[in-house]
Amino acid sequence: MIDEKFDAIVIGAGMAGNAAAYTMASRGLKVLQLERGEYPGSKNVQGGILYADMLEKIIPNFREEAPLERHLVEQRFWMMTDRSHTALQYRSDDFNEEKPNRYTIVRSQFDRWFSRETQAQGAIVISETTVTELVRDAYGKVIGVQTDRRGGTIFADVVVIAEGVNGLLGTRAGLRETPKAEHVALAVKEMHFLPRETIEARFNLHGDEGVVIEAAGTISRGMTGMGFVYTNKESISVGMGCLVSDFAGATETPYGLLERFKSHPSIKPLLEGSEVKEYAAHLIPEGGFKAIPELFGDGWVVAGDAAQLNNAIHREGSNLAMTSGRLAAEAIFQIKSRREPMTKQNLALYKKTLDESFVVKDLKKYKDMPALLHTQAKNYFLAYPTLLSNAMESYLRVDGTPKLEKEKATLRSFVKERSWTGLFGDAVRLARAWR
Amino acid sequence: MKILVCIKQVPDSAQIRVHPVTNTIMRQGVPTIINPYDLFALEEALRLRDKFGGEVTVLTMGPPMAADSLRKALAIGADRAVLLTDRSFAGSDTLATTYALAQAIRKIQEVFGAPDVVFAGKQTIDGDTAQVGPGVAKRLDLLQLTYVSKIDSCDPQKGEIIVERRAEGGVQVLRTRLPCLITMLEGTNEIRRGAIDDSLRAARAEIVTWSAKDAGIADLSKCGLKGSPTIVKKVFAPTPRSERATLIEPAKTAAESADGLVGAIFAKKASLESDMAKLASGS
Fold first, then answer.
1. For the whole model, what pTM was predicted?
2. Minimal Cα distance from A277: which residue of B?
3. Interchain CB contact of B169 with A (< 8 Å)
4. How remote is the C-alpha of B140 from its chain's centroid?
5. Which of A272, A397, B78, B203 is the most buried (most CB within 10 A)?
6. Do B167 and B262 belong to one domain?
7. A4 to chain B: which residues are within 8 Å by CB?
């Protein structure tokens, strides 16, 4: 039996949990944070890119101490077939600014730093401890948690659930359903180590500049998914992910896809001579707006991946997690300052501010995208990349065929594959979902 | 009972990497853990405390970061933690380490009372010398029981302890008077999972932190690199063995499989067959 009571208990020490715990502790609230892993960050997996703006709103001077890898100056989108890629590439020296906007990070290191900062603000962090149950009073209000350690219930005014994508606790407590297979992607990644200079030469980088490659196409074998290559200081993160529902209906394995991605003629030279020292796999919530569960209730709020807050179209997740964690914390602080109870009615403030933020606005914008990509996967990930590659190849190959004939042949190939109405429909559907 | 446990923070060997060129251990970014052998010592100490009352103090020497391991020991259930940290300890070999630890234990005796038992793991997973426990015992003139596999009984009133010690060729049962120093063997117990209030207490605990001066160490020439006569001449990775394992395909019946196996062994070492034949005939 623990005699003391906390203002808030935060479950999980990922981006959302750390943001919430830091924000509340720095405002003087008595915070207990519980993490299942060996240490904060030990279980956390991300590509990963850190978006500075959202962290700045929590720790303004984070750049001075946070373990950052490279700031991004270049983005490459690759539409791939098995032998080619068609690229859209953007690089700007404007990204070489005093306070860069995006960084690559290694989560196990970054999260440990974030947690140390959180503890420095006064939050108590206990690792290797799994919350097994939410404890409720006679009226159903959450009043504390039960852990897998001896010692009974720990009480708090409010529980911030930031337990991650596969939130068993929340599901068990009936706060939400198990995420649907078509709403989560399974991603695998490897860390390939190479000397700094080699990475900089291969990717045309100077100093701490970094590049992101994001690739889609036949590499996912007709499933909804994509591959990525991120440059860190002395390593390259390479990964591949597809929807769980697609994997379930296919004979492809995640590591099989990654192996093929790595041996693609466009990727292989980038990794040449590297040593793989780490590999990881993780689920990513990709259901978007329509998959967002109930976000608050009597005595509890949910943030980050556990609330399915992830923008799959822009591959943004950690920033949505941090922002939702911060907004939850700020709402709790406001309610606390007014000396009011953590009722469902009062905690609605969290959803209100979240709805007004980019988090829900962005997810709303793409609300039809997950379903579209899921049902039209074969077209968007197999047919079009192949047609595009063939068109590019024909355009560039000089073989005495008159240009007009080439263009006609290319157009015919598109119509043959998708028909005029099909082409029109695909364009309209995509435009609608994007809007 | 007053019990002291010496622990060390070591890099997690499961996640360690060896630099391909220099053969040195790459410690950067490798998570640290409590030396796994020390956990058997800690658990044994906690069991004695639970049985006879008293307190368990954990002691470590290391950089300020080593406080993490002490906090972990507190979360498991230890009552107090002492961190011995000073730049002048850097580069200590086992001789210098035992000197500093022995001094610190004298100081602990002075401040918190004399320990009845000092525990240590049988060795660390990074140094693998198994010298520090015995070295501390020698410097403090404590009776030492190394490679202990079990504590049979303990009588703090009489000042007596009976332990089982794994020795070559068997197990020794030894009776010793207290105070003494015990180094615990691995696999002898299972480390407990601290209660939630242990975790809370550990998170808030103030760790007693002593510099060389605080611990009353006057002679710094015996500390750190200066006090360490051990010189690491060369570090190298062992060359892989050239022998290969052989796969013996299973036969139809167990007897045929056994024949195949024995045949393969005799083929490798011909003298074995005649030796065994001699044994079987009783000559």
1. 0.87
2. B17
3. no
4. 19
5. B78
6. no
7. 200
